[in-house]
Design brief:
By secondary structure, this protein is mainly alpha-helical. It has eleven helices and no strands. Helices cover 50% and strands 0% of the residues. The longest helix has 24 residues. The radius of gyration is 21 Å and the shape is globular.
Length: 275
């Protein structure tokens, strides 16, 4: 996997493609939001098909063909998406002892408030699209910027809300059900604004200097708890396995070449019908 890890230039390219989509009128989120959504897909109990999740993440009628009319760009986007998927899955399945470990899952969350504060006034106004406006207006716009990891958490919870059954454990698995609920709560907490004092920063400039304080110490602590919660959600999904659809009396028995009802993505004859 080491040779396939995404580089900063790859994430910049993803941001550029998403910017281009917005210019074409597509309701495309920032990559940080996509990152959270993708992490939730990795942690779902059953595989969710791309044809099901693209319309949730983008426009209601979205397909990769409509999102990326250029076949070459579409192929490159799919490749980066799949590589990031594998990166996240590999990291979450590893026994990391610390989030500082090189192999640990590190969400692509930008401390945008600190990055903006590190700019000089003219550049900051330009980045906000507020050239010529007074300092008070720019300061108000700065206060409206997302809190650290807020977009990541919102993206994660969008997937949870779209497929709520993926986050349910059987009634007999009360301990796992409780752990799932607690973990989802840790991620959901980051969906709220950070209203604490600006004490720390997660932004590091190209020169290697720490950015201006932009978040509370509690926010940074909550972020760490949320990342560990994602580890727990992935472990719970692997423990429980794909959801098994309830069999209804009188329903047509699955054909051997039909997809298995458990959601594994395999044909029935090679899954639950193998016996």
């Amino acid at each position: 996997m080491a040779s396939a890890l995404l580089e900063p230039a790859d994430f910049d390219q993803l941001d550029t493609w998403l910017d281009g989509m917005r210019e074409r009128g597509v309701d495309a989120p920032q990559w940080e939001f996509c990152e959270g959504f993708l992490a939730a897909l990795v942690c779902s109990r059953s595989p969710i098909a791309p044809s099901d999740y693209w319309p949730v993440l983008f426009d209601a009628d979205a397909t990769l063909e409509t999102l990326f009319p250029d076949a070459d760009v579409r192929s490159r986007f799919e490749a980066l998406w799949e590589r990031r998927w594998q990166e996240i899955a590999t990291a979450l399945d590893d026994d990391a002892e610390s989030l500082d470990d090189e192999s640990a899952y590190c969400p692509q969350a930008l401390d945008v408030r600190s990055a903006m504060a590190a700019m000089d006034a003219p550049m900051r106004a330009q980045a906000l699209g507020m050239e010529g406006q007074d300092d008070a207006a720019v300061a108000e716009a700065m206060a409206q910027l997302p809190s650290f990891a807020q977009l990541w958490a919102l993206g994660f919870m969008l997937a949870v809300e779209a497929w709520p059954d993926e986050w349910l454990a059987p009634s007999r698995e009360k301990d796992i059900a409780g752990a799932i609920e607690e973990s989802l709560g840790a991620v959901a907490a980051l969906c709220e604004d950070d209203t604490g004092p600006a004490e720390v920063s997660a932004y590091v400039s190209d020169a290697g200097e720490d950015g201006p304080p932009s978040m509370s110490a509690d926010r940074l602590e909550a972020f760490g708890q949320a990342v560990w919660a994602v580890y727990d959600l992935r472990a719970a999904a692997r423990t429980l396995g794909p959801r098994v659809a309830q069999v209804r009396h009188g329903a047509r028995a699955p054909g051997r070449n039909d997809l298995c009802h458990c959601g594994s993505g395999k044909k029935y004859k090679k899954c639950h019908g193998a016996g």
